[in-house]
Amino acid sequence: MPTRTLSTPTRIVLTGFMGAGKSTVGSMLAGRLGWRFVDVDDAIVQKAGTPIAEIFAKYGEFVFRRMETSAIAHALGERDAVIALGGGAVEVLANRLLLEQTPRTTVVFLDADLPVLLARCQAQTEGVERPNLQAAEERFRYRAPLYKRVARVRIATADQNVEQTVSALLQQLGLHGVS
Phi, psi at residue 91, to the nearest 5°? Predict the structure, then answer.
C-alpha cells in the first residue's frame, strides 16, 4: 500500500445515476485498495430489514431519505472505505453537505449518457425495480448537475468495462501503484 499524504483520501465515495456501476466498480475498487466496501442502499436494507421498494411503499420517500442520510453519515465515519451511494442521494442537501465537509473524502462521479445507463439497467438480471423511462429522463436531467457539483473527480464510463473504470480511477487519484 502506498505511503499516505495529507491529500490522500481515506474514503472514496462513488455517485452517479442508476446503471453507472457504483456497486460493481466500488466492490472491485475496494478489493484493489484492500479497503472495506459499503453500499449505502444495502446498509439501509440491512438495518430496516426490508427492501427499499417496500420502504418507499410503506413510509414514503421522506422516510427513506432520512434513513439514507443516516447511513451516509455512518459510512463517512469509516476509514479506508469505498462507499457507493444510491442514485438519488445527491438530491438531499444534507447528504451533499456531508460529502463536502467530511475531510479526506473524494467523491467520484461515474458518468455516462442516459441511453447507456438504461441499457445497463435492462441488462441486469436481478429483477431490480426501475422507474419508467419518462421518470428516469426527468430524474437524470435533475440529478446530473448535482453529481457534477458534489464530485471532485469524474470518470466517463460509457466506453469502459469495470476493470478499465477502476484502473482509470486509481490513476486519476494517484493510487495506480496499488496492487
Answer: -70, -20
Task: In whole angstroms, give the CA distance from residue 105 to residue 107.
Answer: 6
Class of domain 11-171: alpha beta
- pLDDT digit string, tens, across residues 49-99: 999 989 989 999 999 999 999 999 999 999 999 999 999 999 999 999 999
Sheet order of strands, 105-111 included: 36-39, 81-84, 11-15, 105-111, 153-156
Query: Helix or strand or coil: residue 132?
Result: coil
Closest CA to 77 of 100, 103, 95, 97: 103
Domain limits, the chain: 11-171
Helices (H) and strands (E) in the chain, counts: 8, 5
The whole model's pTM is what? 0.89
- Hey, what's the cell of 29? 475498487
